């Protein structure tokens, strides 16, 4: 059988000879601060994608589902039982879907094609930079969570292979958690994170999606036909307080956060209409809700208040069906880390180029060196933090708060701040459309004199407080 290798071409690791290609790969939202003209906007409209409605539904579902579902049984326990968990999810789902629709409307109205660009166009420079920083911190924290998940699952698998008793520490250095996480990260994650493109991961990503569904199926089956040695703890029926209910919100936000990737998905549709998009996200969120609710309810009822933050850790190490689920989760995380890192690296690259004040095309000569340096620093920092923060629940509580920014805060800012346009003179006697988010845009005051565009300082302060959680 022929072997298929990934990234075996040295050219994939080096610098492309096509400066235009490199510029597009380096392009981060809002590097070009000049507003788009009507002609440019019409050209962009001709470049619409070919994603069907059904395809868009599954893309959004895949963006939602991931390793975050492992924490949902613990979220039900934190919320105070099944009734409180379901009520909280259903209530938040209204705002989650509304936020996705608001993003699509703002993207269509501003002719922007990514989450960051929409924030820049509608809310201005300050909120746009804050959004990009939030995305970078969120992706960084999620990468830490992924490494912790790898360690959790490897501990259980190694315990079976080494025939160590349940709960016993590693007896050898090569089975130590810190060593296994580091070895896996250096062998698999780092090589997958350095290349410029991540398109080659689409096949492995398909397997990770299958693995996510398999994990949900196993948790439901184990609840219906439980093993004799599994005894549930106390089954809570009501929350201790309303504060306890809201403590489960970060986990739910982390699980349902697909808003950053939703704008490109909307613009890739054959018919990018807000009404059609509303049906797409509603169907996708219902599917994701079924998966998360099935995992959360069955996992919580299986173990009760004794459920671990990572539900798979609550199952015996010897269970082979669960061991396969752990292997699928590891595969999912191995393919998800480079994707999240790619997004964070693109944001950092855009911030750096904008700070330097140089166009992308003039800076591609140092792209490879900068990309490798950014990847190594990102990788080493996330690895070190994952080695010394073994509790996945603490990490999710932080990045879940950041996910709330993408779900509630930034769409809310865009909802209260309408997109205003004005015609300004262009070259050759022509005119072009200028949006309220452009730096040179001037709003008219009541007296008719121009004034600076508002920057929503109150909302920016709220975002800063959420980041500091």
From TrEMBL:
One of its GO terms (cellular component) is lysosomal membrane. It comes from the Eukaryota. Residues 50-413 form the Amino acid transporter transmembrane domain. It catalyses: L-asparagine(in) + Na(+)(in) = L-asparagine(out) + Na(+)(out); L-glutamine(in) + Na(+)(in) = L-glutamine(out) + Na(+)(out). Keywords: Amino-acid transport, Cell projection, Ion transport, Lysosome, Membrane, Sodium, Sodium transport, Transmembrane, Transmembrane helix, Transport. InterPro entries: AA_transpt_TM (IPR013057). Pfam families: Aa_trans (PF01490). Residues 423-458 are annotated as: Disordered. It is a multi-pass membrane protein. Its main location: other. Residues 423-434 have a biased composition (Polar residues). The chain crosses the membrane at residues 54-76, 82-106, 118-151, 179-194, 206-225, 245-266, 278-303, 323-348, 372-389, 395-413. It is found in: Cell projection, Axon; Lysosome membrane. The keyword Membrane applies. GO terms for molecular function: L-asparagine:sodium symporter activity; L-glutamine:sodium symporter activity. Symporter that selectively cotransports sodium ions and amino acids, such as L-glutamine and L-asparagine from the lysosome into the cytoplasm and may participates in mTORC1 activation. The transport activity requires an acidic lysosomal lumen. Interacts with the mTORC1 complex; this interaction mediates the recruitment of mTORC1 to the lysosome and its subsequent activation. Belongs to the amino acid/polyamine transporter 2 family. This is Sodium-coupled neutral amino acid transporter 7.
């Amino acid at each position: 059988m022929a072997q298929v290798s990934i990234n075996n071409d040295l050219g994939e690791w080096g610098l492309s000879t096509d400066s235009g290609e490199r510029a597009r790969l380096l392009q981060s939202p809002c590097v070009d601060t000049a507003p788009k003209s009507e002609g440019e906007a019409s050209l962009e409209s001709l470049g619409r994608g070919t994603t069907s409605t059904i395809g868009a539904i599954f893309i959004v579902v895949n963006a939602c589902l991931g390793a975050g579902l492992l924490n949902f049984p613990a979220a039900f326990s934190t919320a105070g039982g099944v009734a409180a968990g379901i009520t909280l999810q259903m209530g938040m789902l209204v705002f989650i879907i509304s936020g996705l629709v608001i993003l699509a409307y703002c993207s269509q109205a501003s002719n922007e094609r990514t989450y960051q660009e929409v924030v820049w166009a509608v809310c201005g420079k300050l909120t746009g930079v804050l959004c990009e920083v939030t995305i970078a911190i969120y992706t960084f924290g999620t990468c830490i969570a992924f490494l912790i998940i790898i360690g959790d699952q490897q501990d259980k698998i190694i315990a079976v292979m080494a025939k160590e008793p349940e709960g016993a520490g590693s007896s050898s250095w090569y089975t130590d958690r810190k060593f296994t996480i580091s070895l896996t990260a250096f062998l698999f994650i780092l090589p997958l994170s350095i290349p410029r493109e991540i398109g080659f991961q689409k096949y492995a990503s398909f397997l990770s999606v299958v693995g996510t569904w398999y994990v949900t199926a196993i948790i439901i089956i184990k609840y219906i036909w439980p093993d004799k040695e599994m005894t549930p703890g106390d089954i809570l029926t009501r929350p201790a307080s309303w504060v306890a209910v809201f403590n489960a919100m970060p986990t739910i936000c982390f699980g349902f956060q697909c808003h950053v990737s939703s704008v490109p998905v909307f613009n890739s549709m054959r018919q990018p209409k807000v009404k059609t998009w509303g049906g797409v996200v509603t169907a996708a969120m219902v599917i994701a809700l079924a998966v998360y609710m099935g995992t959360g309810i069955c996992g919580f009822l299986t173990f009760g208040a004794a459920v671990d933050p990572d539900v798979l850790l609550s199952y015996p190490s010897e269970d082979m069906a669960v061991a396969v689920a752990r292997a699928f989760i590891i595969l999912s995380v191995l393919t998800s880390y480079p994707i999240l890192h790619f997004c964070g690296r693109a944001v950092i690259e855009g911030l750096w180029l904008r700070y330097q004040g140089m166009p992308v095309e003039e800076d591609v000569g140092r792209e490879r060196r900068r990309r490798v340096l950014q990847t190594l620093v990102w990788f080493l920092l996330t690895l070190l933090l994952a080695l010394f923060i073994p509790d996945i629940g603490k990490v999710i509580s932080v990045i879940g708060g950041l996910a709330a920014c993408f779900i509630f805060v930034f769409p809310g800012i865009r909802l209260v701040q309408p997109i205003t346009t004005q015609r300004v003179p262009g070259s050759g006697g022509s005119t072009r459309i200028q949006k309220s988010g452009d730096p040179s845009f001037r709003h008219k005051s009541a007296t008719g004199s121009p004034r600076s565009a508002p920057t929503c300082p109150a909302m920016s302060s709220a975002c800063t407080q959420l980041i500091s959680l």
